Amino acid sequence: GAGVSQSPRYKVAKRGQDVALRCDPISGHVSLFWYQQALGQGPEFLTYFQNEAQLDKSGLPSDRFFAERPEGSVSTLKIQRTQQEDSAVYLCASRPYSEVSEAFFGQGTRLTVV
Amino acid sequence: AQSVTQLGSHVSVSEGALVLLRCNYSSSVPPYLFWYVQYPNQGLQLLLKYTSAATLVKGINGFEAEFKKSETSFHLTKPSAHMSDAAEYFCAVSDSSSGGSYIPTFGRGTSLIVHP
Q1: pLDDT tens digits along B40-51
Q2: How many CB pairs below 8 Å do chains A and B form together?
Q3: C-alpha distances out from residue A107 to A32, B43, B105, Å
Q4: For residue range B6-21, what is the model confidence (pLDDT) as tens digits?
Q5: Residue B42 Cα, gap to closest chain A Cα (Å)
Q6: Is residue B68 over pLDDT 70?
Q7: B54 contacts chain A (CB < 8 A)
Q8: Phi and psi at residue A32, to the nearest 5°
Q9: N or C: which end of chain A has fewer CB within 10 A?
Q10: Average pLDDT over residues A46-52
């Protein structure tokens, strides 16, 4: 595809359930970012990959959050034992190698924990 | 550490009026700066970016922004607002301070409301 694709677009989870969110970046993009966007707020950084290496995970709010990008393309963000405060839109973005380029965003996955 | 402050969570203008959305950044090294727009239930779309070339940057849909190092600002302007400009606008900064990863840091956003 031409852009960053995220699935599912919407996810409703019961509290305590595990969820997995998928991101298909633009082909050939080296960098991949995950952000969390609460209602009415700006995107908050979660984690960053360069190819398959997770170079920064300082934004992950707890050890319930885990991300991977095993082959340097598709990435999955997993949240274990979901809590109500996890309800947010999760945005994925990819970027070519050059840091001068902008990040290209997917449409996001809206997670609602009930 | 880098950070972004967007003054005004909401800005309201009349159609045809000047749009001014404010962004101030904090960075200990030369930054790259971006403005993104987000429509409801959509991802972020780039409007324009500053990457140390010309300080006045022109973007899509008639928007432009000026990098002012002395004021650490990167305000977004448009001479004449259209109804279709109503959206959420985010300013972002990236620099080499995050271990050379240039991870974008976003402001809280400004909601632009356009009245007929």
Answers
A1: 888 899 999 999
A2: 57
A3: 15, 4, 18
A4: 999 999 999 999 999 9
A5: 5
A6: yes
A7: no
A8: -140, 135
A9: N
A10: 96
